[in-house]
C-alpha cells in the first residue's frame, strides 16, 4: 500500500508541475506582442519570414527534391561588410519576395565542399546552386578579384542574379 501511495503522490506532483509549467509559458507569451515570434536562429537576420535550411546537406537535398535553386550566403557576424549586405538584403522587399523561390542557406562557417569557394573563402559571398546540384560559378558579382562578393550598393545586381538563377532553371532543366 505504501508503494502505491508513493506512486500516486509522485504522479500528482508531476501533473501539478506540468500544469504550472503550462501556465508560466502562457503568461510569458501574453506579455510579448501579438505578432507570433518566429525563431531567429536560421535566418540570422537575413529575412526572418523566409524559410532557411539548417545545413548544407539539407539545403542540397531540398534543392534537388523541390527542383528549386539554392542560394547560399556566406557571412560572419563580426564582419561589417556582411552586416551591411544583410541589412540591404533583409530590407529589400523585392529581394525578400524573390528569395521565396529559392532554397535558402546562410552560413557563418565554411563547408568542406571546395565548390563553394571557387575563388577563396571570403565573406560576404553568395553562390547559387541549381537543382542538379551544380554550383553556378557563372553567376557573379561585379568584382573580378572576389567573384561572388556583393556590396550593399549591389542590391540590384544581386536581384538580377537571383532572377538569372531562376531563369536558367526553366531553360536548362
UniProtKB/TrEMBL annotation:
Main location as per UniProt: endoplasmic reticulum
GO cellular component: a single term: endoplasmic reticulum
GO molecular function: dystroglycan binding
Gene name linked to the record: Agr2
Gene3D superfamilies named in the record: Glutaredoxin (3.40.30.10)
Cellular localization per UniProt: Endoplasmic reticulum; Secreted
Name assigned to this protein: AGR2 protein
UniProt xrefs under InterPro entries: AGR/TXD (IPR051099), Thioredoxin-like_sf (IPR036249)
SUPFAM superfamilies: Thioredoxin-like
The keyword Transmembrane helix appears for this protein: no
Family: Belongs to the AGR family.
UniProt keyword list: Endoplasmic reticulum, Secreted, Signal
Keyword Endoplasmic reticulum (UniProt): yes
Signal peptide coordinates: 1-21
